[in-house]
Predict the 3D structure of the following.
Amino acid sequence: FRQEGIELRYEPGEEILPPISGDPERLKQVFCNVLDNAAKHGGAGRRIDASLTREGTNQVVRVRDYGPGVPAAELPYVKQKFYKGSSKARGSGIGLAVCDEIVRLHGGTFDIANAEGGGAVVTICIPEKE
Ligand SMILES: Nc1ncnc2c1ncn2[C@@H]1O[C@H](COP(=O)(O)OP(=O)(O)OP(=O)(O)O)[C@@H](O)[C@H]1O
Ligand SMILES: [Mg+2]
């Protein structure tokens, strides 16, 4: 990201969250996919914000970029396998479908939306206990 002039901001909160059980390799794949999207589809915004919070009994990861966001008409389809929106960036359109499936297999939810003020925001919710 630094090489591409994109700043990744992550401010860990005060609270130390309890570990959650899951498959670390698959979860890493989810975070890499989401960060890759933020950089390649939203990199024009030059900034990505990531956060981790505890909301009730869920741990919530948010990744927000400051790019063009996802056109509203495409939002219902972006999690479908091989769906590529109007973004001209490289890729086969499989990333979000795989992310969604991995997170669902952890009993959680995976959502993508547009952020207030522009850019896309992905919200990954994983329960502490399934
Ligand atoms: N952060 C984002 N900003 C704008 N559009 C996005 C963003 N993330 C995803 N999209 C849109 O959703 C589509 C689907 O995303 P997905 O990650 O599934 O595929 P991809 O990134 O195009 O290819 P792959 O992940 O297989 O390399 C993208 O082609 C793009 O149009
Ligand atoms: Mg992708």
